[in-house]
Amino acid sequence: MIERLVVAGVGLIGGSLALAARRSGACARTVGWGRDAERLAAAVRAGVIDEGHTDPAAALAGAGLIVLAVPLGACRAVFEALRPHRPADAVVTDVGSVKTSVIEDARAVFGAVPPWFVPGHPIAGDARSGFGAARADLFHGRRVVLTPLPETDAGALARVEALWTAVGAEVERCTAEEHDRVLADTSHLPHLLAYALVEHLLRRHGRERAFRFAAGGFRDFSRIAASDPTMWRDICLANRPALRAALGSYRALLAELDAALDAADGAALYEWFARAKAARERFCDRGER
Amino acid sequence: MIERLVVAGVGLIGGSLALAARRSGACARTVGWGRDAERLAAAVRAGVIDEGHTDPAAALAGAGLIVLAVPLGACRAVFEALRPHRPADAVVTDVGSVKTSVIEDARAVFGAVPPWFVPGHPIAGDARSGFGAARADLFHGRRVVLTPLPETDAGALARVEALWTAVGAEVERCTAEEHDRVLADTSHLPHLLAYALVEHLLRRHGRERAFRFAAGGFRDFSRIAASDPTMWRDICLANRPALRAALGSYRALLAELDAALDAADGAALYEWFARAKAARERFCDRGER
Question: Phi and psi dihedrals of B55, rounded to 5?
Answer without folding.
Answer: -85, 120
